[in-house]
Amino acid sequence: MYRDGALQKEDFPVEDVSEFLAEPGTAVWVDLCEPTEADLARLAEELGLHRLAVEDAVSEHQRPKLDRYDGHAFLSAYAVRFDAGTGRLTTAELGAFVTPRALVTVRKDDGFDIEPVLRRWDRATELAKSGVPFLLHGLLDHVVDGQYEAVQALDDEVEALEDLLFADRPDSSELQRRSFRLRQSLTALRRVVLPMREVISSLMRPDLQVADELTRPYFEDVHDHARQAAEQTEALRELIATVRETQLNLQGNRLNLIMKKVTGWAAVIAVPTAVTGFYGQNVPYPGNGAPSGFWTSTVILVVLSVGLYALFKKKDWL
């Protein structure tokens, strides 16, 4: 519980929330981890939370959104973390009830680490007088920064994939595995990053009265970061598709080069085969049974083979 921007009390029972809110100049933050709908019922009655918002708070896999109800709003968002070692993206879902003087965060599991949010609040004491806007800004700033860091990490992975693509001896199976994992992670990241622009933009609307004059520049900064993360996510989507197309084109070019060389060498070998086959016929021919015939055929083989090799080399067929 904050009073006039100063932390007054913590670790108190949920039943005391209404008592604190009755005092002037107070703002309350309540954090619930893996609650049931019954756990939220008492708090919902004290704060006047809508039944549909309570259902969304305990339901999993909600889309990032901002729903407005009479007297409060419900926010859904995701914290993300990208593991470069496994190439996997993990998400942690969060719901938040935003009232004029209370912020209630509902974590669907302990995968959402709330400690970094507390540290942000402790560092931004100059904003604490705003109450709920101060608390909400710190929460969203942590979420959006985590999403932006995940986008940057994926960008680094795509660059590493490009380096592997143009290696002297690229590993096609490794390229396919890594590009598939990146596409999976990017798809998951895109689902949670793109809607955040609209969510934060809606929070900044004057009629919602969430961002006050003190915190509005800070909300605009968070909105700018969310927009950058969304734009870069879209760019990465196109870049990964380009990497895949480039990989297929390079494979096709290498196959054509191999076929060109094999065809050229087959033509070089075909001429000696034809000459030896001709001289192996069972009818008399000039030089038959004489050393001159052998040497003549040998010279013809060498001259034709060298001539074909030089011709194909000049045309870049070998």
Description:
The protein is α+β, with helices and mostly antiparallel strands and 318 residues long. Strands 2-1-3-7-6-5-4 form a seven-stranded mixed β-sheet, with helices on both faces. It has two domains: 2-251, CorA soluble domain-like (Beta Polymerase, domain 2, 2-Layer Sandwich); 260-314, no CATH class. The chain has eight helices and seven strands. It is a multi-pass membrane protein. Its main location: membrane. It is found in: Cell membrane.
Write the topology of this structure.
Elements: E1 2-3, E2 6-7, H1 17-21, E3 26-33, H2 37-47, H3 51-58, E4 65-69, E5 72-83, E6 88-98, E7 102-107, H4 115-123, H5 132-165, H6 172-203, H7 216-279, H8 291-314
Parallel strand pairs: 3-7
Antiparallel strand pairs: 1-2, 1-3, 4-5, 5-6, 6-7
Helix pairs in contact: 2-3, 4-5, 5-6, 5-7, 6-7, 7-8
Transmembrane segments: 262-280, 292-312
GO molecular function: cobalt ion binding; cobalt ion transmembrane transporter activity; magnesium ion binding; magnesium ion transmembrane transporter activity
Family: Belongs to the CorA metal ion transporter (MIT) (TC 1.A.35) family.
Attribute tags:
Beta Polymerase, domain 2, 8 helices, alpha+beta, 2 domains, 318 residues, 7-stranded mixed beta sheet, 14% strand
CATH class call of the largest domain: Alpha Beta
What is the number of domains? 2
Strand segment count: 7
Rg over CA atoms: 35 Å
Considering the protein shown, what is the CATH homologous superfamily of the largest domain?
CorA soluble domain-like
**Gap between N and C termini:** 79 Å
Give the proportion of residues in helices. 55-70%
What profile does the largest beta sheet have?
7 strands, mixed
Residue stretches low in confidence (pLDDT < 50, at least 5 long) are none
Structural class per helix/strand content?
alpha+beta
Strand content: 5-15%
Topology as a string of helices (H) and strands (E): EEHEHHEEEEHHHHH
Number of helices: 8
Strand order of the largest sheet: 2-1-3-7-6-5-4
CATH fold type of the largest domain? Beta Polymerase, domain 2
Q: Can you name the CATH architecture of the largest domain?
A: 2-Layer Sandwich
Mean pLDDT: 84
Transmembrane segments: 262-280, 292-312
GO cellular component, one term: plasma membrane
Keywords: Cell membrane, Membrane, Transmembrane, Transmembrane helix, Transport
Subcellular location: Cell membrane
